[in-house]
Amino acid sequence: MAEAYFPNGLPQPRANPDGVDAPYWEALESDKLKVQRCSNCQTWQWGPEWICHQCHTLDVGWEEVAPRGRIYSWERNWYPNHPALADAVPYVVVLVELEHAGNIRMLGNLVGDAEREIEIGAAVEAVFEHHAEGDPAYTLVQWKRVE
Questions:
Q1: Burial of 69 by CB count in 10 Å (0-12 exposed, 13-18 middle, 19+ buried)?
Q2: Is the dihedral of CA 115, 144, 34, 70 positive or negative?
């Protein structure tokens, strides 16, 4: 279990009411990363949709992928865009490319020293941050550098 990266008081993430992303959130509870893959054309996709972005079939499933990737882009945030973040800046948001899942990209926070040098292409792995106190409980994916 990861130590909480951000302070309490931020809005709690919620699954979409229509359930399209429920498999993603359920997998996170078990420290697993799942993303969508079309059962027809085998195209990987993110974010979750009811239809394949490539062939437009409705036969889109979920597959577990290795929770590793590379930094595709990043941004160091100095301005707290929510009152709960007033003492948490700076923090780094990364766009992580999952090479083993069709190069789809996911956003997340990079844990660790927010002022250190960041390299495009650096290897990262997922850190699963569990929040049992949430109502309902939830898990976030953060990213850490692989040294």
A1: buried
A2: positive
Q: Which residues contact 26 (CB under 8 A, 6 or more apart)?
A: none
Q: Are 20 and 26 in contact (CB under 8 A)?
A: no
**pLDDT digits 0-9 by tens, 60-118:** 999 999 999 999 999 999 998 889 888 889 999 999 999 999 999 999 999 999 999 99
Choosing among 3.90.78.10, 3.40.1010.10, 2.40.50.840, 3.40.50.2300, the CATH entry for 66-147 is 2.40.50.840
User: What does the alpha-carbon distance between residue 32 and residue 65 come to, in Å, rounded to a whole number?
Assistant: 8
| 3-state class (DSSP) for residue 83 | helix
pTM of the model: 0.91
